[in-house]
Amino acid sequence: MQAVIAQHLTYSYLEKSKNRAIDNISFQVREGEFWAILGHNGCGKTTLARHLNALISPQKGELVVAGLDALANANIWKIRKACGMVFQNPDNQFVSSVIDEDLSFGLRNFGVSEEEIPNRVKVALEAVGMAGYEKRSTHFLSGGQKQRIAIAGVLAVEPDILIFDEVTSMLDPEGRRDVLNTMQRLRERGKTIIMISHYIEEAILADRMMLLHDGKILGIGTPGEILPDIELLNRTGLTPPMAVRAYYDLKAAGITLKECPLTNEELVEGLCQLR
Ligand SMILES: Nc1ncnc2c1ncn2[C@@H]1O[C@H](COP(=O)(O)OP(=O)(O)O)[C@@H](O)[C@H]1O
Ligand SMILES: [Mg+2]
Fold it and tell me: What is the largest CA-CA distance in the chain?
């Protein structure tokens, strides 16, 4: 089954404007896949994410999320339930400063019964490694912990698909690592994950990557296909990962590694194989 089918999605914030935030976007995400969407500021990443979460209805083109047609008004709440979204700023996502109250509020909005709520909260906190934090205040959490609580809030609704819109961009390295590990765990549990990022290194986690530029798709492929393509990355305005740059610098100096490494670990391995 496909988690997302987008066909020729096109959207302008000012109707009839030629300025398209996304422009003829078509792609399909399979259930359980982990996607990374990358591109410069203003290239349309958030606009696309808002479509997937039914915060925006398609103006043009077709969109099916979790088997639900996004053009049907009756599906809006079903899509929001099936496809949860976590945002960039960890501080803007809480309604209450007490963690279980915050999570409960979200669940009530989705019509979850009062007797079911405590268990949903407990299970969601466990899934993000924050078990036992029910009565704590969000004020005393680190950025990474706040994002994990925000993820728990979305998870408690039991969506099949999770969208992360630059959720690590305001975090320190430790917070980033925690949140990325949480995403990995969710993937292992079978969730479909769509991660928007501006850290190219994070894309290595993904099954597939999509590069956006000026609202258009410049490339879709595995990290192994996309990341060594420095010409494509340049056109997207992205700097290749350090290991890829090192590969080409070495090549220019007459040293050719067997394969283009994507991570620093693979680079070290490649260097060790040189004789
Ligand atoms: N609420 C809005 N009203 C008008 N234009 C917007 C709005 N949000 C985004 N845009 C414009 O749409 C384009 C895509 O923005 P966005 O989807 O936020 O990109 P990204 O998330 O990649 O930075 C940009 O040109 C941006 O200025
Ligand atoms: Mg954005």
Answer: 67
User: Which residue out of 16, 18, 45, 47 has the highest number of ligand 1 atoms within 8 Å of its CB and is therefore the one to mutate?
Assistant: 47
Closest Cα to atom 7 of ligand 1: 13
Task: Please tell me the number of the ligand nearest to residue 39's CA.
Answer: 1
Give residue 90 CA to ligand 1 midpoint distance, Å.
20
Query: Which segments of the chain have a pLDDT < 70?
Result: none
Q: Ligand 2 mean position to 271 CA, how many Å?
A: 37
Q: What is the 46 CA–ligand 1 centroid distance (Å)?
A: 7
- Residue 198: per-residue pLDDT: 83
Q: Are 194 and 52 in contact (CB under 8 A)?
A: yes
Task: Choose the CATH number for 2-223 among 1.10.275.10, 3.30.420.10, 1.10.1760.20, 3.40.50.300.
Answer: 3.40.50.300
Q: What is the pLDDT of residues 228-247, one digit of tens each?
A: 999 999 999 999 999 999 99
